[in-house]
């Protein structure tokens, strides 16, 4: 048996011998010894190694996910700020468009008024010419 296996078996045995609670410690101590074969120890050792590797990869994946989440939160914050700026700009442009539309409508009304006035003056002028010609 190698030193590592011996230490592991010894540690496992000592842990199993420790009392589970304070009341057991004060009562009469009864020790139970468990023995492991080298194959069982190797299986436990390989299982522990596998669990350590899985824990390491899980922690690495968690760190990567947290970094991605942090980046996403930063990007979301930037996009929210940009969205607010664009909404303000849209409101300003909408207001300008509404103002331009009102101005255009006023110009159209003024143009109609001027055309009616011009037509009226043309009719009056035509009537005066006809009246002068008849005299």
How would you spell out the order of helices and strands? HHH
| Poorly predicted sequence stretches spanning 5 or more consecutive residues | none
Determine the N-to-C terminus distance: 144 Å
Main sheet attributes: strand count, strand direction, barrel closure: none
Shape: rod-shaped
Output the structural class. mainly alpha
Number of strands: 0
Let me know the average pLDDT: 87
Give the helix tally. 3
Strand composition percent: under 5%
Radius of gyration: 48 Å
- The percent of residues in helical segments reads over 70%
Describe the structure.
The protein has 135 residues and is an all-alpha fold. Helices cover 87% and strands 0% of the residues. The chain contains 3 helices and no strands. It is rod-shaped. The relative contact order is 0.04. The model has no long low-confidence stretch (mean pLDDT 87).
Summarize the structure.
The protein has about 140 residues and is mostly helical. The protein has helices at about 5-15, 20-25, 40-135. The mean pLDDT is about 85.
Topology:
Layout: H1 3-17, H2 22-26, H3 38-134
Task: Label this structure with key terms.
rod-shaped, 87% helix, mainly alpha, 3 helices, 135 residues
């Amino acid at each position: 048996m190698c030193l590592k296996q011996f230490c592991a078996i010894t540690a496992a045995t000592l842990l199993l011998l420790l009392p589970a609670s304070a009341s057991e410690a004060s009562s009469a101590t009864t020790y139970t010894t468990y023995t492991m074969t080298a194959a069982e120890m190797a299986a436990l050792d390989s299982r522990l190694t596998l669990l350590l590797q899985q824990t390491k990869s899980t922690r690495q994946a968690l760190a990567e996910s947290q970094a991605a989440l942090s980046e996403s939160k930063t990007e979301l914050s930037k996009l929210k700020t940009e969205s607010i700026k664009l909404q303000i700009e849209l409101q300003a442009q909408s207001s300008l468009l509404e103002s331009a539309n009102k101005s255009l409508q006023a110009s159209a009304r003024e143009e109609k008024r001027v055309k009616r006035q011009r037509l009226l003056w043309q009719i009056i002028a035509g009537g005066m010419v006809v009246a002068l010609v008849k005299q």
